[in-house]
Specification:
129 residues, mainly alpha, 64% helix, elongated
Length: 129
């Protein structure tokens, strides 16, 4: 397995867990593929639809080729604003769940919530190439 593939798969795994233990630190990072959590097929379809992609494999290949989500949306006539909104919704929902489960404090919740929009907006411009 080449290093580029290892980096992308590793980034996807981190994005899918979106923080795990990192929520306890003061700096949180999000990946453009954070949407790919195991929360249901409908959500995956929403992301693919917003990016105008036909499959997860097509999206993965575009990311693997070094394109950002913004590049993919622009190339395919997708809606990057919808991609951002989908990610904001999912990440906010994950934060809400973590707060309600007690895995983060109200202070951590507020700090992370304040960062989400900026993180997502930056992540759509990030490429892996």
């Amino acid at each position: 397995m080449n290093i580029k593939r290892v980096m992308i798969v590793g980034t996807m795994v981190v994005a899918m867990s979106f923080g795990g233990t990192a929520w306890g630190s003061s700096i949180t990072s999000a990946s453009p593929v954070a949407k790919w959590t195991a929360t249901g097929v409908a959500e995956k379809d929403d992301l693919l639809e917003a990016l105008n992609q036909s499959s997860n494999e097509e999206l993965y290949e575009s990311l693997y080729d070094g394109k950002s989500l913004h590049d993919i949306a622009a190339d395919q006539g997708g809606d990057i604003a919808n991609v951002i909104e989908l990610q904001l919704t999912q990440l906010t929902q994950q934060l809400d769940e973590r707060l309600h489960s007690g895995s983060i404090t109200a202070e951590q919740y507020a700090a992370h919530k304040a960062e989400i929009k900026e993180i997502v907006e930056q992540s759509v411009l990030t490429s892996f190439g």
